[in-house]
Amino acid sequence: MAAGWEIVAFPVILPWQGEFWTLPLYFPDLKVGVLPGWPAGLPYPGMALPPEAEGSGRELRHYRPGDLRQWHAFAAFGESREDTEDIVQALRGGGPEAPARTDPAPDPWHLAWQMEKIQADQEAQLLRVDQGQGWLAEILAPEPWEERSGLQSVPGLREVVDPDLAWMRYQLWRRVMAPYLQDRWTPFLLGRTSRAIFLTLKGWPEWTLLKQVRVSLPGCRSEAEFLAAQKSVAPPKWLPEFRQRLAKVLDAAAASQELEAPGRDLQQFVETAIGRHWPGPNPWRLDLEIWAQDPESDDNLGPVLCWAGTGAGILPG
């Protein structure tokens, strides 16, 4: 917790990445959801995957056209607990009443968990693909290539997030992590597509107007690096002050104030208290972004922490 701020990882299911070895140094109290493949010994008690997320797909055979857009009513469903059939009927446009159905009534949360599990499995596979592409770039870099003509890929347009799926994943996250989303809280965007999901929720052109500040933190990508850093920099000595300075940036972001001064103060503290004592001359760096949004906006999501390196080539829908 950053001096009164609850920091909650997004999304609900977070496949393991080697860069996550950095997290316990700076965010030992990070609130997390389901952690598939995370190594033992880290201070994060991930929750178990619920049975409804492990469906085989047969549960979806009763869904009819229109049922798969139920997540637009998730917020209302969570507040009023109204009958699911009423939500489905409303999303179909309030037309003539559908004939009585003999198959089970669709459960929107059941569907949301299954979709989240599918997305997490896909993300885990794509992380390996990204790693493989990096290896290929290193292997093939010295090879001479002929200049290619014809169609070329557009820089940055690698993947696009679907807006409806982004809204569904956000609502599921809000429901599951609700105990931590009280008073002052901020999401920490760690998933491969999490950055683009939040930008999609802001919509165009609002997501291009976000104010942000970036802080470079020394980081780890393996257990050996993590253990060496943990021994050298002794986090308990500087962690309380790090939290206080990060909280000042989050406070400024929440109030839509200028971020440069508190961000610069945090960066100077990191270099003085942590960077100088880091093992090795050139540590890997974690670029941490703090986003500020317009407090008067109807869709204000509050301040957001973002791991700038994740999802850099994925665009909002």
Distance between the termini: 31 Å
Strand count, sense and barrel status of the largest sheet are:
5 strands, mixed
- Rg, Cα atoms, Å: 22 Å
- Binned, the helix content reads 25-40%
Strand element count: 7
Based on CA inertia axes, which overall geometry fits?
globular
Helix/strand class: alpha/beta
Describe the 3D structure.
This protein has helices at 23-26, 74-80, 84-91, 108-140, 163-176, 194-202, 223-233, 235-254, 260-273; strands spanning 6-10, 159-160, 185-189, 211-219, 284-292, 304-307, 314-315. The chain has a five-stranded mixed sheet with strand order 1-3-6-5-4, sandwiched between helices. A two-stranded parallel ribbon has the order 2-7. The protein has one domain. 38% of the residues lie in helices and 11% in strands. With 317 residues, it is of the alpha/beta class. α5 packs across α6 and α8 (235-254) packs antiparallel against α9. It is built from nine helices and seven strands, in the order βααααβαβαβαααβββ.
A few lines on this structure:
With 317 residues, this protein is α/β, with parallel strands linked by helices. Helix content is 38%, strand content 11%.
What is this structure's SSE topology?
Elements: E1 6-10, H1 23-26, H2 74-80, H3 84-91, H4 108-140, E2 159-160, H5 163-176, E3 185-189, H6 194-202, E4 211-219, H7 223-233, H8 235-254, H9 260-273, E5 284-292, E6 304-307, E7 314-315
Parallel strand pairs: 1-3, 2-7, 3-6
Antiparallel strand pairs: 4-5, 5-6
